[in-house]
Amino acid sequence: MTPGSPQSTALDVAAGVRARSGGIRPRAAIVLGSGLGLVAEAVEQAKTFSYDELPGFPSLGVAGHAGRLIVGEIAGLPVAVLQGRAHYYEQGKADIMKQPLRVLAALGCNTLLLTNAAGSLRAEAGPGSLMLIADHINFTGVSPLFGERDDRRFLDLVEAYDPALRATFQAAAASLGLTLREGVYLWTSGPNFETPAEVRAARLLGADAVGMSTVPEVILARHAGLRVGALSLITNLAAGMSDAALSHAQTLALATQAAEDVKRLLVAVCRRLATEKEAAA
């Protein structure tokens, strides 16, 4: 099996990326959601790879997702950044991000920082606010681990969102004067937005925000042994909570406006993770 073939394993792809990026061994990975491509500008010594040249990586069909892997450093921390993700609704495959996440693990990442754009279920947390995900609800009934054969598929998700990482996010936010709420994210399949009745049901279930991504990646990352932190940028109030019409254009517009806060927070988190690593060494 040769690197570049459609059947290339995650180890093959990671070896090729490492050879072409000067041997950088990223310790943390970041996935950028809709409209958050600005964060990629924080990567120094960047080496960039199009998903099209990485075997097993998905083709992306959603505006605001560039489809690039960037390897470099943020605030002294070696990182790998996925600029864009594929969604379950694009091909009906919950495990569509399996190869990218396994490549991140094969590159040496032990931490995954996820971002997304989400709709708020809480009137007090309006557009432009940030929410750290403390837990999730899978509203779809599907799992990216369907078809896995060994007993690791029976995955414990009690602490899917790492408590220590959440504390790091909160400390970083406080240092920047940013308000960072914590809440429960509910995953729907999309691509249509939720109905007002579904939003009312989600609130009754205890959700604080709703979106069409992230949960499959959390499950895949935990299956691969990565610890996970996840951040939602609130771009709208969910269906029935305001008079505004919902659209992907609205999501992109607000996310682009608020991307600077997300960038500042992720840089601060990376700086703290780099310091933690140095202290541990």
* Multimerization state: single chain
Q: Give the total of domains.
A: 1
| Spans of at least 5 consecutive residues with low confidence | 1-6
Q: Tally the helices: what do you get?
A: 7
Radius of gyration, whole Å: 18 Å
Approximate helicity band: 25-40%
Mean pLDDT: 90
* Through-space gap between termini: 37 Å
Helical/strand content category: alpha/beta
Give the overall shape.
globular
Number of strands: 9
Order of helices and strands: HEEEEHHEEHEHEHEH
What's the name of the CATH homologous superfamily? Nucleoside phosphorylase domain
Largest sheet geometry: 5 strands, mixed, barrel
Main β-sheet, spatial strand arrangement: 5-8-7-6-9
- The CATH architecture classification is 3-Layer(aba) Sandwich
Describe it for me?
This protein has one domain (10-280): Rossmann fold. 32% of the residues lie in helices and 24% in strands. The chain contains 7 helices and 9 strands, in the order H-E-E-E-E-H-H-E-E-H-E-H-E-H-E-H. The protein has helices at residues 10-20, 88-91, 98-107, 163-176, 196-205, 215-223, 248-280, and strands at 28-32, 44-50, 68-74, 77-83, 111-120, 130-138, 180-187, 209-211, 227-237. It has a 5-stranded mixed beta barrel, surrounded by 4 helices. Helix 1 crosses helix 3. The longest helix is centred in the last third of the chain and has 33 residues, at 248-280. Residues 1-6 have low confidence and may be disordered.
